[in-house]
């Protein structure tokens, strides 16, 4: 019977295996070569051009390593050296995958969030000193080529913008990349140019606007991350892995893709939109059945959607592992997925960019404890940083989780961001956690996400999990709404499942019976047509905090001046926090003073702006 913990002998054996693998393959390209040796003629990348594509295109492992080597040769011809930065802003496709792995093999890769604003893009490229920018061709969905036009004039280091296709072929600016038949020799020579502990990738972390925060990852840290996930899931040549996360996310890049490739598994890319393609969600079970998918890992919002997708006919017999990450999976969502799939558990993964991927995973042969995100991955050590700034590893304390291991990044590109990142050599996660007696990690909340109501710490998960039990709710998220008396109060945002309506009063009564802490009851509930999400599919709480601030300010303004013609807009400023802009027309001095007085007690910045 599967147990929820490792015996000490299992831990020792797992770490011995991981250390041996990391010694043999300390680079990203080493792990891809490992997959090629395990499964040379097997599928490496399989690209579905549409959700209904039953004749997908792709590359075998032999073709993949030869094409990566050929792309490295092409980058050298373009003047790219070992320390030069190649930024990639393109959706998932074989060409994008090859561009990223090739850049890691011969230069420094810089995968970019596709939602970056133009200003954020300029800031990223300038900070990274990008030499080459890779984008899709002109006219492709998302307008990424158009967003990049003219950047050479704005980014001093940028010398060339290269387009890569999204149809499954691999070329630079329309010229096909020629596979290097001497790929082993070419890659061996490239490895001599850089040590495994040098920075090989720059991963943006944080939002899509504002000053860039860029994590520097080494070959060894990324390889260690992928090895940890390889062992947790036990990827092998017989696996077919559904990868719907983008490669600018460490979960997509290392927890899923690189770990799969290291095991010789086939990576299935479900269109350039991945799980953001409604047709992929609708046809998920059919894709699993037709291609005999064995492993799928999806963010909780996508899991909630596929759980209610039609499943009449398709078999799930091939599917041995379903994982989730990027955010805690609500228990109700897990229950619905298990009902549709029939497996034994939805296995959580928990990680961060600064750890190059997973910190903890529920292994394939273990069961999760209720509410846990799993056991520390191979080579990772965890502890709790208590309020007294002491490290505790006794499974008694609640505090901030800290972690160390070869997966830890080498710091931020801007060293000013490193302040407060480490505690005595341990990486601080910013998550409030508990480690149970079995060694499994339980996230109690993001320290910055805690809602602090008059000094009472409220875990938003308590509210969200209760809301997800209400019939007809698709997603739920709780944030703090500014309050002049309590500092902030809980506000709940929900979205209805397709074809359902939500009665707010009934939902409020439902929550009153399920939330035992009275201060945690939402003071207000807002029904949204669509929850704001990141490109990965994670609920974007900064936008919800902005909406909550707008609701509160609008309420106070209407109380002060009921008939005022006032527009309110909130935004999160990296330096000042929540900033609310108030624009008014035909407001006399007395009314203006009444408005400012009403807003003065709020824990945010208010500023007057001219109306548009």
Task: Describe this structure as you would to a colleague.
31% of the residues lie in helices and 26% in strands. It is an alpha/beta fold. It has three domains: 8-441, ANL, N-terminal domain (Rossmann fold); 450-539, 2-Layer Sandwich (GMP Synthetase, Chain A, domain 3); 543-609, GMP Synthetase, Chain A, domain 3 (2-Layer Sandwich). The strands form eight sheets. It has a nine-stranded mixed beta sheet. Strands 18, 19, 20, 21, 22 and 23 form a six-stranded antiparallel beta sheet that branches. The radius of gyration is 25 Å and the shape is globular.
> Cα-atom Rg, whole angstroms?
25 Å
Unreliable runs: none
CATH topology of the largest domain: Rossmann fold
Number of strands: 31
Please write the CATH class name of the largest domain.
Alpha Beta
Could you give the order of strands across the largest sheet?
2-1-12-11-13-14-15-16-17
Q: Biggest sheet, open or closed, and with what strands and sense? A: 9 strands, mixed
Which word captures the global form?
A: globular
As a percent range, the share of helical residues equals 25-40%
Q: Please tell me the CATH architecture of the largest domain by its name.
A: 3-Layer(aba) Sandwich
Head-to-tail CA distance between termini: 65 Å
Strand content: 25-35%
Structural class: alpha/beta
Q: What's the helix count?
A: 17
Briefly characterize the structure.
With 612 residues, this protein is an alpha/beta fold. It folds into three domains: 434 residues, ANL, N-terminal domain (Rossmann fold); 90 residues, 2-Layer Sandwich (GMP Synthetase, Chain A, domain 3); 67 residues, GMP Synthetase, Chain A, domain 3. Helix content is 31%, strand content 26%.
